[in-house]
Amino acid sequence: MSPRLPLAAALVAALAPTPAASQASRAPAAPGPALSAARTIMAGAPLSVFLSRVPAGARLAIARPDQPATAAIVVVEASGAVASLPTPGLVGLYELRLTRPGDGGPVVLLRQPLETSAPSATLAAPAQARPGADLPVRGIGPNGWRDRVVIVAQDAPAEAPGPFFHPAENAEATLEAPREPGAYELRYVMDAPVSGPTVLARRPLHIE
C-alpha cells in the first residue's frame, strides 16, 4: 500500500498546471506587420517596399526623421505585398514609416532609415534633325513617375512643355522634332517631391 502524501504536498500537486496548460501559456504571440526596402536610393527614384501582415487602412510614408507622425512628404496606401512610392528629389536623410489610422492621427507601426544620393541622368539622341522629323531618343535617370525626357527651347524654364515621353514607362521613344528651325535642347527633367521639376541632363539639338 503506497504511503499517503502530506496534505500540503497534495494541494501543490493538485494546483500544478498540466503540461498542456503550461504549453498554452507559453504560446508565442502572433507576428506583427513587417516591411523590407532599400535603405539608400537615388533621389527621386521610386522606392519598392515589400510588406506582410499589414493592418487594414495602413499607409506608407516618407518623412524627415524629426517630423511627427502627422507630417509626411509622401503618403501612399500600403495595400498588397509590394508597394511603390516616390522619394524626395533632394539629397538627405529621411525615414520610411508604416502607419495605421488612429484617433489623434496616424500611428507609426514601423520605421526604417532612408538616405537619398545625388540624382543623375543620361541622354542619347542625334545632334540635329529636320523640322517635324522623327527623332529617336533615349533617356535614363531616376525614372520617377513624373520624370520627362522633353524637347524645349534652350532658354526655357524647367517646367516648359514640349514633345516628351516618360522614361519610367520606357527608356527609348521617338519624338517629333520641332517644326520651327532653330536651337533647342533635349532634357531629362526629374519631377520629384520636395525638389519639383529639376533638369538633370541636357543635350543640344539643332533643327535645320
Query: What is the C-alpha radius of gyration, as a whole number of Å?
Result: 29 Å
Considering DSSP H and I runs of 4 or more, what fraction of the residues is helical? Answer: under 10%
Q: Proportion of β residues? A: over 45%
CATH topology of the largest domain: Immunoglobulin-like
Major beta sheet summary: 5 strands, mixed
CATH class of the largest domain: Mainly Beta
Computed structural class: mainly beta
How many H/I helical runs? 2
Overall number of structural domains? 2
Strand arrangement in the largest pleated sheet: 2-8-7-4-5
Q: Which regions contain 5 or more consecutive residues with pLDDT less than 50?
A: none
- H/E series, N to C? HHEEEEEEEEEEEEEEEE
Describe the global form: elongated
Mean pLDDT: 90
Give a verbal description of the structure:
The protein folds into 2 domains: 34-117, Immunoglobulins (Immunoglobulin-like, Sandwich); 122-207, Immunoglobulin-like. It has 208 residues and is mostly beta strands. The strands form 4 sheets. Strands 2-8-7-4-5 form a 5-stranded mixed beta sheet, with no helix packed on it. Strands 10-16-15-12-13 form a 5-stranded mixed beta sheet, with no helix packed on it. It is elongated, with a radius of gyration of 29 Å. Strand 15 and strand 16 (196-207) form a beta hairpin. The model has no long low-confidence stretch (mean pLDDT 90). The longest helix has 9 residues, at 7-15. 8% of the residues lie in helices and 46% in strands. The protein has 2 helices and 16 strands.
